[in-house]
Structure formats: structure tokens, C-alpha cells
Amino acid sequence: MLTEFGKVLLFLIVGAMFVAGGLIASWILRPNRPYPAKLSSYECGEEPVGNAWVRFNVRFYVIALIFLIFDVEVVFLFPWALVYRELGLFAFLEMAVFLAILLVGLAYVWVKGDLDWDKPVPQIPKIERDRPAYKQQTPAEPVAV
Prior knowledge:
- This protein is mainly alpha-helical and 145 residues long.
- The chain has helices spanning 4-29, 36-39, 58-75, 77-82, 84-87, 89-112.
- The relative contact order is 0.05.
């Protein structure tokens, strides 16, 4: 007789065998006829130019992650809106807190500048070249921190 953990283990083993069996069967049954056009990277019908392992700007990923975070969180608004009248004032206040947290996150991302596509180039200070020749200076006293 199996315990509850034994049933779970048996379920995991059967599931792993099912996945492995499907992968092995597809590997055995599929045709394998590679040719150069098939092995080339596909870029929306365009001829590939350059190496496929080019480094993308991090801003692409940051904007995509911000979109996903806010998109998934806004999905929670739809079920709430469907049953809004039955939930009452407490649910309204909970959703107000939820939206306030979303707005704080949006303000943080906005102030941080992650929503700006063209970030300003940092201004590097320049050294003045027309100084008089350096004189022998006495060492400054250390500042207590």
C-alpha cells in the first residue's frame, strides 16, 4: 500500500517518463535533413546580416520587464471589476491600496529614468589646462570622518 508521498513520487515518475517518451519518440520519428538554408537564423523573411550573437542594449529587457510587471498586475483588475458591486467598501479600499502601490512603482521607474528611451549622455568634467604651474604644496591635514 502506497502512502500519500509514494503516490506523489509515482505521479512524478510517470510524468517524467511521459515527457521523456515523447521527446525520444519525436527524436526517432522526425526527419533529419539539414541544409545551409535550414540551419541559418531566420529574421522575418530578411537575409541575416552579421552574427546572431549580437549584444542587445539592456534597455530592451528593462522596458519588457516593466511592461510584463504592470501588465500582469493590471490583469487583477478585471476579475475585481466583474464582482465589484458584491464586494463592498472593504474590497474597494484593498484595490485602492493595490493601485497606490502600482502608482508608486510607476513613479519610481519614471523618476529613475527607465522609461526614457534616449538617456542623456553623462557630462564628464574637463580638466582646466590653463592653470599656472604647480607649486610645492604642504600636505593637507587629514579630515576626521
